[in-house]
Amino acid sequence: MSEIVLETRGITRDYHIGGGLFGAGRTIHALKGIDLTLEKGKTLAIVGESGCGKSTLARIITMIDAPTSGELLIDGAKVDITKKRLDSDMRRKVQIVFQNPYGSLNPRQRIGDVLMEPLIINENVPEAERRERAMAMLTKVGLQPEHFNRYPHMFSGGQRQRIAIARALMLNPRLLVLDEPVSALDLSVQAQVLNLLADLQDEFGLTFVFISHDLSVVRYIADEVMVMYYGEAVEYGTRDEVFQNPQHDYTKTLFAATPRADVESIRKRLAAKAA
Ligand SMILES: Nc1ncnc2c1ncn2[C@@H]1O[C@H](COP(=O)(O)OP(=O)(O)OP(=O)(O)O)[C@@H](O)[C@H]1O
Predict the structure, then answer these.
(1) Which of 26, 119, 263, 269 lies 20 to 30 A from 202 at CA?
(2) 18: Cβ below 6 Å to ligand 1?
(3) Which atom of ligand 1 is nearest to the CA of 59?
(4) Residue range 12-39: mean pLDDT, rounded
(5) Residue 261 — pLDDT band, cuts 50, 70, 90?
(6) How much is the pTM?
(7) Burial classification of residue 54, based on how many CB atoms lie within 10 Å of its CB (0-12 exposed, 13-18 middle, 19 or more buried)
(8) Which residues form a coiled coil (predicted)?
(9) What is the average pLDDT score of the chain?
(10) CA distance 105 to 17
(11) Could you give the ipTM of this predicted complex?
């Protein structure tokens, strides 16, 4: 039987902006009813242009933000982040890797400490075991034990992203949310990091939510694809279904890599249809 690691049911997220004493302000519907299910060991890619709601969805899945309505389930259990103390076991199941490996590492922290920190915060692990586990993880992500005492500035962009991945894996998560994890890297380095992620996924049975705007990367890494457009999932299916038979006009335009002007005209047409 398949194991469902991630499920969302009708997730919405509204942002209220402006307003004040005399004004009503405005509501942005950043997510409009997102339903998805993701099995253990699979990769779901979420694609869409800037502002379509990808990061908002990532924040909800990683329990940083709460939905306005709808449900998030991790390993079949409903998550309620409004609870004063969300079960720490639940939080550690989902980890995130951000796009920018420069910004996400503290420049004054040695790599060994970066990797041991989650074990200090979340687990009562003796120092010797912490070191051992951090060293082992360094090698798993293709770095060397002698990197343990070095600082982030001594590494290349690709190596720093390996460190960020290692840190995310220290607590044995079930689900990794990868938010544009290779977009800031050179093309050749991108391929190495993507291969590393695929190997780690196999070895640890990890499930990935992979946010990307790069269709060649998505085609390479995804089992399933969701295309988002103005807060809605306009396309959701297996990679082959979505790539071979896109249903929505926006996706067709995206895949055809037509000039920006065409994307704009399609958007206007869709907006007119919706009005
Ligand atoms: N804290 C916030 N307050 C108000 N509006 C917000 C907030 N966060 C996001 N939004 C709005 O919600 C919508 C979705 O934003 P989101 O950041 O999720 O998009 P995205 O697809 O991740 O874009 P990008 O690729 O640029 O990060 C946008 O219209 C954005 O302006």
Answers:
(1) 119
(2) no
(3) 18
(4) 89
(5) very low
(6) 0.89
(7) buried
(8) none
(9) 89
(10) 31
(11) 0.96
